[in-house]
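Researcher: Re-running this chain for the archive, since the previous output was lost when a drive failed. Same request as before.
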Amino acid sequence: MAVNNDEATRQVFSRCLLNCLQVPLWRCYIRFIRKVNDRKGIEGQEETKKAFEFMVNCVGADIASGPVWMEYIVYLKSLPAQTTIEESQRMTTIRKTYQRVILMPIHHVEQLWRDYENFENSVSRALAKGLLAEYQPKYNSAKAVYRERKKYLDDIDWNMLAVPPSGSPKEEMQWTAWKKLLTFEKGNPQRIDNALSNKRIAFAYEQCLMYLYHYPDIWYDYAMWHAKSGSRDSAIKVFQRALKALPDSEMLKYAYAELEESNGATQAAKKVYESLLGDGVNATALSHIQFIRFLRRTEGVEAARRYFLDARKSPNCTYHVYVAYAMMAFCLDKDTKLAHNIYEAGLKRFMHEPSYILEYADFLCRLNDDRNIRALFERALSSLPPDESVEVWNRFAQFEQTYGDLTSMLKVEQRRKEALSRMTENGESNLENSLQDVISRYSFMDLWPCSTKDLDHLARQEWLSKNVNKKIENPVPVNGPSSADRSISDISMNSNTSSKIIFPDVSKMVIYGPTQKPAGFSAMKSHNLNLAATLAPTLPVLSSTLPDGITRGGPTTSINDIVKALPPSLATFLANLPAVEGPSPDVDFVISICLQSNIPSAAKSQQPAPSTSDVSASTKFRQSRQGKRKDMDRQDEDEISNVQSQPLPRDAFKIRQLQKAARATSSRTGGSASYGGSASYGSGFSGDLSGSSG
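Model: Regenerated structure tokens:
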């Protein structure tokens, strides 16, 4: 277009325009058409008008096609009209275009409705009133559907490339978003006529295939939707496009052949099957089987028989082809002899296939031919290696449980044990009888001669007996295996775990040891001074005088300086704290110590004692009970004082018990003071005064 090469531009548009239903590409196409036809006069105007109609028919249902419709209407309004008839035709064309677009759930539909109102009112207000009243409900429905439609379209990534599915979460989300949109469009939420609804659904599928081009399920759904809608030719075209997009998809080929066959086009279906077979060298066993069945349905028994004779010579022919044709002869043609001969012919070629042996045995069981079944098992077991004969032995034992007597049943089970014992290391233990054999003999379908719990127990015991002697390589620690290592190794061997256990490196472990007490200090003073050194950096008064090494266990002289610099009340508080062994406790533990300590106050003598009128109601209630138990109180006070002199327990329950005892002591002391008119009473928890009188 930039170099005005119109012919090359037309060829590009002819190749991509119908395959890419994107509004920007179509608007570019319209610009090209208008540029080419502007110089042609009336003939060029008609060609441009046809191009606009072609565009709105193809992408007019796109939710982003609002500007396309607006551009089309503006172009129609710009066309000259020489006569009254031409003017009337132009106005009719504009009106029909407006009436088409206001039914579309697209962007700018509200703006288009307002333009339509202005257009009708400019032509004739009397006529506009009736037309607007007729189309108002249809416009409201389109607007409501637009809101719902926009929710589904917002979840779609319009920049996604059409690549084969890889199973990524993003691809799955896009697939789900497109499926939701297609389901929404199929529901015809706007309740429009079937022709317009089908057009929108087809447009949604076409847009979906631009992004999910390599998804066979989308192609299949699109074709089946056409077929259910009655458009068989459209469905065939979709399948043909799908096979061009996915030429190796056997699923789509079978679906396409099925559609042709269901419509009576057997020759077209046969061509599809022949495309699956190719030259016959690379044909799969499944394609042979399905073509034999197709020939049996459409051309008869002889055609299927002739092709089977040819297919058995193919290098890719497996035992499945023999089984399929034999069952076809037995079930469809009711020819037992032919089916038996096919199985016998296949047995010469597939004696090494246990699955074929089992299929042949099932066929003989249907004939109730127990003699030939036993002969078949004996022939097969004599040629199969032990590791491939497990299923055959199991079926043989199951057959004897149904058709044989107890002697033959036990004999086959014993032979099975002897044959399978060569496969395991503990072969002698497998020869022993177990309850599993009894359960196998006396169960039927889903009926068992024991409970589920017994089954689980026996299964566990069988597993343990098979794996008890298996050994697992365990890494040996650098310092040699300890008792713990040996116990872990024993557990690993018993559990038959193949993974290696990673042990920690115990050579770098540090043995815990409490810090030594400073020389010249008792246990209580050492703890108190260390606590002071810990609390000192948090005090704003002493923050400028603390040395750097205090918190890391500085010298004793520095600790003494800190204690001297503390206020008298805080120094007294620290000196009366009980001793605590080990490292410095946490804050909660220190608070528990404070709650159990009788700490004297430095300012106690300076404050007057409270009167009995300040005693709270709860204290008065406790005071009323003290007179009856004075002797018992003295005994309790002695016990509490003895408890407080002992080292602080670390158990939280004991701490709470001591707190309760301290509260009881405080209440009794306060009660006696009130009766005697004493000057003061104190709290046994904090050492502070409870109040003052005066």
